[in-house]
Amino acid sequence: MRTSISSFLQRACCLASLCIDYDLSMYNSWTADNISYIVPSYVKHLKVSIKNPDEIKIVLKRLQQLSSAQFRFGHASCWRKITEWIDRNMSHSSYKADAYSFIVWLGKNSIEFNESKHNNPLVIHNDLPTNDWTSLFQLLVKDNSYYGVASGHSFYEQCLPNHSVGIGYCSTSIHWLSKKPCNILNHCLIDAVTCPKVNEEFRQQAYLDYCRFLKHRSCELISGGVLILVVLATNKEGKRGNEEFHNILYECAQLLPFTSNELIDYTIPAYFRSYDECVDEKLFAEYSFDLIKSQNVMMEPPFLKSWKEEQITFDEFARLSTSFVRG
Ligand SMILES: C[S@@+](CC[C@H](N)C(=O)[O-])C[C@H]1O[C@@H](n2cnc3c(N)ncnc32)[C@H](O)[C@@H]1O
């Protein structure tokens, strides 16, 4: 029944005022969940009987579009808790109450301003201190819906205090190693290398770095905390689908006036782990992690197809790829 009323109301987009069961007894009256489910986002004035007056603040928090709301309760009620909460959080609002009903005229966005942001979790953006942080700070000024701060540390060290992080998220970053274990000849990236010794040195470095990364995250997370990793990895054939991109990068480097030593030194300290190297449950257990879910997804390298199909020129491809990597 409520589902069909709700879908009917969702279509009544001129509806600005809504009155639901306002005069009924508390046994028929509504919970915060029912009210938030049924009231569409264009209703500005609401009258409703409510089962539990303590749930009024849940309704006001969820239906932030409301300009006024009247609640009726089946028994004489004390509204002190809700009036105190309104005084604390909604400074531009006023209210009127008698034994059975409570009316509030809401100040615009006062809940959002006073409560939502302050109660949101703190977001700590971490990257190397040597990185260019300008666009992050611009982003934080533009989006002030949460508290965000910057932390300049290598993720191969502990970046935050013990047991201080609820959710850790790291995306497309841990293919960067803490250092290159050796130089690569005739290419800049490990995935073009056929020499088993060089491959093994990179594999070992990646393993040690992954251990360090997991150890530090394990210390920082609270008990029951979650670590989400998005890793650039290879498929079963050892491919990433992005190799061509890096061949072009090395060809470009060869066109520059580098000495042969500089060209050899142009070795990118990155390693693309296999799926099994990423999802290493033995390693997870060593650092007190339980695997919740893992998935391997193949992604098309951006812009490469358009360039190969001559939809864009090489210059456009280079410009788009550079701005993509810069984010
Ligand atoms: C491809 S970007 C990914 C950026 C972002 N996480 C995203 O998904 O858009 C890789 C980032 O990892 C950072 N990075 C590389 N090595 C790092 C390290 N040891 N500690 C912290 N950040 C590192 C780089 O500076 C770069 O910003």
Describe the 3D structure.
The chain is α/β, with parallel strands linked by helices. Helices cover 38% and strands 15% of the residues. It has 13 helices and nine strands. It has helices at residues 2-11, 32-38, 56-62, 80-89, 110-119, 134-142, 196-220, 243-255, 260-265, 275-278, 281-286, 304-308, 314-326; strands at 17-20, 45-49, 68-72, 94-97, 101-105, 123-127, 148-152, 165-171, 221-230. Helix 2 (32-38) runs parallel beside helix 3 (56-62). 15% of the residues are buried. Bound molecules: S-adenosylmethionine.
The level of helicity is 25-40%
- The rough form would be described as elongated
Number of domains: 2
Ligand list: S-adenosylmethionine
Second-tier CATH architecture of the largest domain: 3-Layer(aba) Sandwich
Find the count of extended strands (DSSP E, 2+ residues): 9
* Rounded mean pLDDT score: 88
Number of helices: 13
User: Which segments are poorly predicted (pLDDT under 50) over 5 or more consecutive residues?
Assistant: none
CATH class of the largest domain: Alpha Beta
> CATH superfamily name of the largest domain?
Vaccinia Virus protein VP39
Q: Which sheet architecture does the biggest sheet show?
A: 5 strands, mixed
Radius of gyration: 29 Å
CATH topology term of the largest domain: Rossmann fold
Order of helices and strands: HEHEHEHEEHEHEEHEHHHHHH
End-to-end Cα distance: 48 Å
Keywords: Magnesium, Metal-binding
GO molecular function: metal ion binding; methyltransferase activity
